[in-house]
Structures are given as C-alpha cells and as structure tokens.
C-alpha cells in the first residue's frame, strides 16, 4: 500500500511537471527567444552530420530551430513538442520558410514512432525539460537506427541560465522548509 501511494505521488509529480511546461510554453511569443538559440541548433545539426535525405526528428522542438536547420540541409524532418502552441508556431514557421516539416504534439518521454525510425535524434534545450532523463534517453535510443546519432544541448550549471535557475530557486522557495537547498 505504501509502495503504491509513493508510486502515485511520483506519477503525479511527473504529470504536474509536464503540465507546468505546457502552461509556460503556451505563454508569450517564444519566437523571440528561439532566435537567440538558433546558432546552437545550427551547430547541433552540423555536429550530428545531417545532410540531404537524413531522417531527423527534433524532440521538444519549440518553433523548430533544429528542425528547420536540418530541413535547410535537405533532411527529411519530423518535429515534436509537448506544447500545442509551440507545434502551431513551428508549423506556421515551417510553412513561411517553405519547408515540408511534419509536426506532431508529443511527449519526449513517449515518442509516437516505431523503433529505429530515424538516422538522427536532436533536441536543443528540450530533453532537459522532461522530468525523467532516463526515460527520455531510452526513447531517443529506441527510435534511433543502429549507428545513428543523438545530439542535444543543455544549460551548464555555471552558465547564465544555470545561475539564473539557482537564483530563482532561492527566491521561489523562500519560507518553504522542505525546499531543496541548491548549496547542499
Ligand atoms: C527552451 S524550449 C527549446 C525549444 C527549441 N528546441 C529551441 O531550441 O528553441 C523547451 C521546449 O521543450 C518543450 N518541452 C518541455 N517538456 C517536454 C516534454 N516532456 N516533451 C516534449 N517537449 C517538451 C517545451 O514545450 C518547449 O517548447
């Protein structure tokens, strides 16, 4: 009984984290921020050797920085994101830029693709927002063909966003005795 309620609480926390992501990425106009990340997407696509006809999936694609960088190189591209607003943004952007990217609403922890479906799996600042890294990595490897490449970017703890997160956590958790202490 104890085990099951612990399991339920963990499942609830995972679901809540995903809803929080969806709510956050449904606000405002993400396309302004995504311009700042575009150079990382270009670098990721080059680092993973994407060329014409490479089958690519961009996971947690936002409005499609990686997807479009791959499409410009002639790849066959699918893009996914858990947030419907991002999928719509990305679909419109792909049309505007004249690329036939397939867009789907999907959770990085449960990709709606068969095993070994892609040559390259990409995620720029995306995998890191799903709550269970081991599940995300498992999914990325499941949909990757043998010998394919997975490429992703993440914030570093000592970089601007890493330090901003620590600072925000200190203020957001003020007064909460159960909050995680980032210095511990
Ligand atoms: C910082 S943005 C990065 C977007 C894009 N890759 C880029 O480089 O601009 C993070 C994205 O992750 C998406 N996301 C968060 N959790 C997710 C999950 N579990 N599955 C799929 N996408 C997720 C958000 O909706 C958001 O679009």
Number of strand segments: 5
Small molecules held by this entry: S-adenosylmethionine
What do we call the CATH homologous superfamily of the largest domain? Vaccinia Virus protein VP39
Helix proportion range? 40-55%
Summarize the helix and strand pattern as letters: HHEHEHEEHEH
The secondary structure category is alpha/beta
CATH topology of the largest domain: Rossmann fold
Main sheet summary:
5 strands, parallel
Radius of gyration: 17 Å
> What separation lies between the terminal Cα atoms?
32 Å
Instruction: Return the average pLDDT rounded to an integer.
Output: 92
Number of domains: 2
Task: Give a concise summary.
This protein is of the alpha/beta class and 184 residues long. The protein has helices spanning 2-24, 30-47, 65-72, 84-97, 133-142, 160-172; strands at 55-58, 76-81, 102-105, 118-124, 144-153.
Please characterize this protein's 3D structure.
The chain has a five-stranded parallel β-sheet. The two termini are 32 Å apart. It folds into two domains: 2-153, Rossmann fold (3-Layer(aba) Sandwich), CATH 3.40.50; 155-184, no CATH class. The chain is globular, with a radius of gyration of 17 Å. Helix 2 (30-47) crosses helix 3 (65-72). It has helices spanning 2-24, 30-47, 65-72, 84-97, 133-142, 160-172; strands spanning 55-58, 76-81, 102-105, 118-124, 144-153. It has 184 residues and is of the alpha/beta class. It binds S-adenosylmethionine. Residues 18, 21, 25, 34, 37, 41, 60-62, 65, 81-83, 86, 107-109, 124-126, 129-130 line the site of S-adenosylmethionine.
């Amino acid at each position: 009984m104890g085990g099951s309620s612990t399991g339920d609480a963990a499942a609830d926390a995972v679901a809540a984290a995903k809803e929080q992501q969806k709510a956050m990425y449904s606000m405002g106009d993400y396309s302004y921020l995504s311009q700042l990340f575009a150079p990382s997407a270009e670098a990721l696509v080059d680092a993973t050797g994407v060329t014409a006809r490479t089958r690519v999936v961009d996971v947690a694609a936002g409005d499609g920085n990686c997807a479009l960088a791959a499409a410009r190189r002639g790849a066959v591209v699918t893009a996914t994101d858990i947030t419907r607003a991002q999928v719509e943004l990305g679909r419109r952007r792909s049309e505007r830029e004249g690329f036939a990217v397939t867009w789907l609403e999907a959770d990085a922890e449960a990709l709606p693709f068969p095993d070994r479906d892609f040559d390259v799996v990409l995620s720029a600042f995306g995998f890191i927002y799903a709550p269970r890294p081991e599940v995300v990595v498992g999914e990325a490897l499941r949909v990757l063909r043998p010998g394919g490449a997975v490429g992703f970017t993440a914030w570093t703890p000592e970089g601007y966003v890493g330090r901003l997160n620590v600072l925000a956590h200190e203020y957001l958790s003020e007064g909460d005795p159960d909050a995680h202490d980032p210095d511990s």
